[in-house]
Amino acid sequence: xxxxxxxxxxxxxxxxxxxxxxxxxxxTPAPAAQPAEAxxxxxxxxxxxxxxxxxxxxxxxxxxxxESGKVRGQIVGNPMKTTLGPGExxxxxxxxxxxxxxxxxxxxxxxxxxxxxxxxxxxxIRETTQYGSIIGCAQDNGGEEQGWMLGxxxxxxxxxxxxxxxxxxxxxxxxxxxKTEIKPDQWYHVTATYDGRLMRxxxxxEIEAESREQSGNVLYPASAPYTLGCYLDRxxxxxxxxxxxxxxxxxxxxxxxxxxxxxxxxxxLTAYEPSFESTQRFxxxxxxxxxxxxxxTFVWETSRPGTGVVEYGETLPYTERSPMGSExxxxxxxxxxxxxxxxxxxxxxxxxxxxSEIVSDDLTFQTAVHPDTPYAFTVIGDTxxxxxxxxxxxxxxYSLRPNFEIHLGDVVNTGADKREWTExxxxxxxxxxxxxxxxxxxGNHEENHSNYYNYFSLxxxxxxxxxxxxxxxxFVLDTNKPVDPDSEQYKWLEAELSKSTxxxxxxxxxxxxxxxxxxxxxxxxxxxxxxxxxxxxVLATLYEKYDVDIAFSGHVHxxxxxxxxxxxxxxxxxxxxxxxxxxxxxxxxSSGPSRAWLTQRAYRGHHICYVTIHGKTxxxxxFDLEGRLFDQMDIKKP
Length: 638
Prior knowledge:
Blueprint: H1 4-9, E1 48-53, E2 58-60, E3 63-65, E4 72-76, E5 80-84, E6 87-93, E7 98-102, E8 117-127, E9 132-141, E10 144-152, E11 157-161, E12 174-177, E13 187-194, E14 199-203, E15 206-211, E16 226-228, E17 230-232, E18 237-239, E19 241-250, H2 256-263, H3 267-271, E20 282-289, E21 296-313, E22 320-321, E23 327-335, E24 343-351, E25 357-359, E26 363-366, E27 375-380, H4 387-399, E28 404-407, H5 418-433, E29 437-440, H6 450-455, E30 465-469, E31 472-476, H7 488-498, E32 504-509, H8 537-545, E33 550-553, E34 559-566, E35 569-570, E36 576-581, E37 599-603, E38 607-614, E39 617-624, E40 629-636
Parallel strand pairs: 27-28, 28-29, 31-32, 32-33, 33-36
Antiparallel strand pairs: 1-19, 2-3, 3-4, 4-7, 5-6, 6-19, 7-16, 8-13, 8-19, 9-10, 9-16, 10-11, 11-12, 13-14, 14-15, 17-18, 20-21, 21-22, 21-23, 21-24, 24-25, 24-26, 27-38, 30-31, 34-35, 34-36, 34-37, 38-39, 39-40
Helix pairs in contact: 4-5
């Protein structure tokens, strides 16, 4: 069974006229006049629930109508019709482009299957993500797992579905993961079927996964959007960076043989391999991640695929070489078995399939220090999109020669915009990050995008994590996610705090527990303020219980040192100290018009903080964009 629209789209493969594939025009003689023939009427499969593509339905302006006529949806952004190799499709930019079939299935379930269905797509993925969606309607938030989705992860396609027959109270999704590795800018035919008992996932005509965990009708959430080209649930959004030629949903299950019939006419599409830049270059120069006493991670990106290796040693020339990494453009290699507290030289090398190489400059790194050794770290937050300021602050930060840096979130302005990572944050921070590690926390502007997880290599589960350095332990949280006492993150944090034996304990996260900001937590020129994020006050209880010394945060684009606070009041003996340091590049903000009871020092300006520690002595300094000291705090434990 070959859909008529796809047959038309693929007709150029046989050398005939078509609309979906590029072909050089050829001169042909004008045909003799022929009697006009009636245009054949398109036959619509009565089980068709939804179909849209270059030759299916009408996609234009701000709306679309699918081929079945049952779905009239909204175009978000500006998907462009574009050519990729032998195929033409709609290009989604990974940031602002997707299609909305239904804003909320609570008001319309047009195009959604009840039980038996087949979902099929011709797609090309330029950039994978942790949770990518081709088409679907699902909610996957904590214990709530409902709906279905055909999508992709970092390395493979998946089919997820929850059914009424396997409902554990709030739903349970089964994820079928494919075996075919997704390669950038290549075409794939992806199909999934469900007949009320059996889930199957096909890639390029082959069955790659199946399951009988689900049964009965699809279990849908009470409220959710139905989208194409964007994973969109209650608290996450991952637009697709790629193309689709055609996507369809059929209200019955087709057989494996019929899946092959649908794939076969486009088999030559999947044989296309994109070309890369003719000259190899560093898209991102090598930088460091996750230093330990005996290990270090190296990350870099090249314009053409290749195999990476790290050369290193305590002296030059290099005496050691890492194992070869896997082939690709984004390279990550972890070295272990290093000497503690030891300076090393390093450089990275990428070798392409044709034997050509690119080699970095000689650089340096140092492993983490022993608990009794003095050390220092810098603090920056809300760099967002401001390359000149980021560059100035990070250059100054490196001049202080810290052992590492912590980032309080909003490392970029738009998480899906790769250029902000490669040309803003990483390029501007490279003088620092090529020599010392950055340990970030997730802000709201990263949008939990895969770029964050691609460019940072952190302890599991990465969205929150803990690590030790010297005589301190750091607890990094994701305050975009729930932190209430019943949440997974809260329980994890209490367990980690309860077993910590570190001399110094630091927590950091993006949103502030306490702040005197003028308008983030109430417009102080018109109304009362909550003096910070009220939903995070439960964390303060943990910090007080387990003797956290300082809690750092950003989000508010200024500097503020809060008086030590315990049980909601200033307590200089037992209170936790709070530092807001969101002046890394974002548009500046101020404290409210009246002095707040909690403020000890406030400052409006781009800045970094610098913390030095030896034993039980700590000093925190804050420097402005010109490197001038504007605040200092000293702590000496008994």
